[in-house]
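Q: I'm teaching a short session on how sequence maps to structure, and I want students to see two examples side by side rather than one. Could you give me a first protein with its sequence written out and its structure tokens following it? Keep the formatting plain so it prints cleanly on a handout.
A: Of course. Example one:
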Amino acid sequence: SSDEDVVLKEEFRGAVIKQGCLLKQGHRRKNWKVRKFILRDDPAYMHYYDPTKGEDEPLGAIHLRGSVVTAVEYVPDAKKYDVDGNLFEIITSDETHYFLQAATSEERKEWIQAIQIVSKTGK
């Protein structure tokens, strides 16, 4: 319906604050996949995409308002997949946990700072 289109557009209205590829842990199968992330400020969303497929259809969205983001040293099951270091976690206001890995510690710091700002200021 056209109502859904309006809702979708709303999510994409914010200015792009940061974008790039991160490793993301799957919710059901705990495997890690490279996803392209686009962070927008108002409303505060991080959409993620399959980097091989372009940016038409996000695979998912993380609503960041009121979320908590922290650097973490340990993610259960990560070592099994040779994923180690530069990890961070987003816990959304509805208690969904997302585990992500940046390529470098610098990049992790940048993502965390950007997400923190957006989570406080965005809708």
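Q: Perfect. Now a second example for contrast.
A: Example two:
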Amino acid sequence: MCQTETEEKKLVLSEENKFFYDTLQEARKFLPKSLESDTLLVNCAWESIILFEKEAEKDINKLELALKFGSEIGNAILRQGILSILWHKNLSKKVASLTKLIDKIGHFPKDKSVRTEVGIDPEHVVSFLNQIMNLLDLIMDANCNINEVPIFNYDLFWKDSSDYSEFDFIATNMILNLALGSNSSTDIQGKFKNSSSKQLVEVAAEQKHVNYHLCLFQYQLVRILFLIVKYKMRSVKPYSFFDTKGKLALASELHTHPYISNDVDAKIVNSRKLFFTKALNSIMNQVKNPTSIRAKLSEDINESLSTVFNLSKEMEVDSEFIKLYYCCLLYALDYHYEAEKILHGIKEVELFASQLLIVIGHKVNEVLEKNKDPNLIAILSTNLKSWLKSLGPPDYRVHTISSKQAFLELIGIVLHRLPDSFAEYKIATELLDFLENPLFKL
């Protein structure tokens, strides 16, 4: 349960920590059990979450600190126990309040309603959700690594003290709390429980094992909220992606076993598909316009995209649908290098080619709108002109770099995948003739 001597000595590398480390080693001579590493970490995580609750409207640094302490706990039973206590104490309520608020108005409101309903500054909600994802990750990891049940012994000092009220308020109240287990802000003020109280580490160890699948289900909701808030998505209702039993599961404590299934009706399936297309669109709206078709996406964008892909897979949204849509978005912005990574994994090649043809059409319309050369418009066939007009405005961002070769590459992908019996094939061949005409310039 204790950290190794080598791990503890790492603290000494910092001069700022030396005094604390030396004092801790001296105190351990008198309180070896109460000041074991896991005992300290459990209590520090608890005290940090209490401070977070006091300062949540200002910042969430104390929440991050609580999770850092929790992540370092060596015993997985203790780690799972204290982290699940933190979740149930207050954090789950904040997540539920945020979900209800977004569900009510269809987007994340950056106003006082967030402070009122959730108790967090709107500017810190993305960071808050990041920490909640971290918390659920830590709980699930601990659940998968359950080891020996910890054994606790009181130091002789506590056994000899039958009534802690005799101490009144003293400077060592934190030390007393380590033995007694602080469980409210009252404890921090120096009002202690009697000797029959359990240590906080004992309470943590006695927590019921969490239901991994329910944790993962909660994790799905938090990632949905993260995408909505970070990418300012609108017209989204988080609860619409779950059926009645799913909503009840989201309100359940982590150790329970409610019915969870992705076997939902068609309406919910379609709402999930629409959400993920919106999410992909919202993320791609944040990328920079490339200067080359070999440009790469940033690490932050790739992380968010991975969230979409993993989450859509867990929620059993058709992966082929997601890949096809995402690949078209990449080609629409001329991120050819990134699109090629997805292209070769697409199975419904004919459907993809038809969708990519529409992307090319939007790009051609954009060029014609900017160029306004009557001679260029004159070489359009009647059929092609009518088709381009029928497309209307795109529902995704379009960017075209100054490369005629990039256009020809796209039309080549389409022609290679469309059977010549398709009506779109004729459109594609007419587009190829148009793009190869010397009058077509970028």
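Q: What should students look for in example two?
A: Point them to this: Residues 162-196 have pLDDT under 50 and may be disordered. Also worth mentioning: Residues 198 and 314 are 40 Å apart (CA to CA).
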